[in-house]
Amino acid sequence: MWARLKLQPQSEKQLSRINRSKDTLRDKILHVLSGAPIPMDVENVRIKSGLKNWESTKALLLELVVEGIISGQKTTKSWVFWVDHTDTRLSIAGRNHA
Questions:
Q1: Is 98 strand, coil or helix?
Q2: Is 24 helix (H, G, I), strand (E, B) or coil?
C-alpha cells in the first residue's frame, strides 16, 4: 500500500533549491563541454567545471547523455563525453553554451 507524502513548505523550498543547484551544475558541465575541441573524460570535466565529487560529475554527465543533450562513449578505461556542435538541441532547449 502506497501513501502520498505531503511536503511542508520548508521541504518544498529545500527541494527547489536542490533542483536549482543541480541545474547550475549541469550548466557548468555543458559550458565546459561546449568549449572542448575533443571529447573529455569525467575527471577533466570535473576539474574544469569546478565540481568536487567525481561520482556526482559522472552521474550528471550520464543524465545529460540519457536526455540526449550530450554524447558519451564508454571506452576500455572510462567514459568520454562531448557536445555535437552541429546539433541544434542545445539552442532549442535554451541552453546555448557555445
A1: coil
A2: helix
What's the pTM?
Answer: 0.69
Distance in angstroms (rounded) separating the CA atoms of residues 5 and 21: 23
CA distance to 16, 18, 91, per residue, from 79 (Å)? 30, 26, 25
Closest by CA to 40, choosing from 75, 67, 89, 90, is 75
pLDDT tens readout for residues 10-51: 555 554 655 678 888 999 999 999 999 999 999 999 999 999
Cβ proximity of 51 and 32 under 8 Å: no
Of the candidates 36, 76, 80, the one whose C-alpha atom is nearest the C-alpha of residue 58 is 80
**94: nearest Cα among 74, 71, 69:** 69
